[in-house]
Amino acid sequence: MTRTFLISLLMSTACLAAADAAQAPRPSTEETTIDFGGFKSLTQEVQVYRANRLVSLTQFQSMAREPKTIILDARSAEAFRQGHIDGAINLAFPDFTAQSLAAALGDPDTRILIYCNNNFENNAQPVVLKARPLALNIQTFINLYGYGYRNVYELGDVVNFNDPAVHWVRR
Question: pTM value?
Answer without folding.
Answer: 0.81
